[in-house]
Write a structure and sequence with these properties.
Blueprint lengths: L3 H129 L1
Organism: Acanthoscelides obtectus
Protein name: Tropomyosin
Family: Belongs to the tropomyosin family.
Length: 133
């Protein structure tokens, strides 16, 4: 005993209920879409910041690499200078040893000559005394 009005109102109520559910689903989907778009904007900004940081780090790395290369060259130059200085020091030490031997020899020769001079002086004194007597 449904009447035409009752039969029509039943589907209309169902349709209205389905429409309300679809509208609620649509509203939730739009909210999720807005949240997603907001998240996209946030992530794009974060990506831009990370990209800038990466570029900055790449520039810093390049500078550090150049500095490292410069330090490497400087180190090699200093190592070469050290080897040259060590060679000069060894040569100077050998020269000092040779000169010290020469000084020792000359000092010994001087002592011997002083003794000889003293002996000659003594001989002259003796000869002079003998001439006087």
């Amino acid at each position: 005993m449904y009447t035409v009005g009752t039969e029509c109102s039943f589907p209309r109520t169902q349709v209205a209920r389905k429409l309300a559910m679809v509208e609620a689903d649509l509203e939730r989907a739009e909210e999720r879409a807005e949240a997603g778009e907001s998240k996209i904007v946030e992530l794009e900004e974060e990506l831009r910041v990370v990209g800038n940081n990466l570029k900055s780090l790449e520039v810093s790395e390049e500078k550090a690499t150049r500095k490292e290369d410069e330090y490497s060259i400087t180190l090699k130059q200093m190592e070469q200078q050290l080897r040259e200085a060590e060679a000069r020091a060894e040569f100077a030490e050998r020269s000092v040893q040779k000169l010290q031997k020469e000084v020792d020899r000359l000092e010994d020769e001087l002592v011997a000559e002083k003794e000889r001079y003293k002996e000659i002086g003594d001989d002259l004194d003796t000869a002079f005394v003998e001439l006087i007597l």
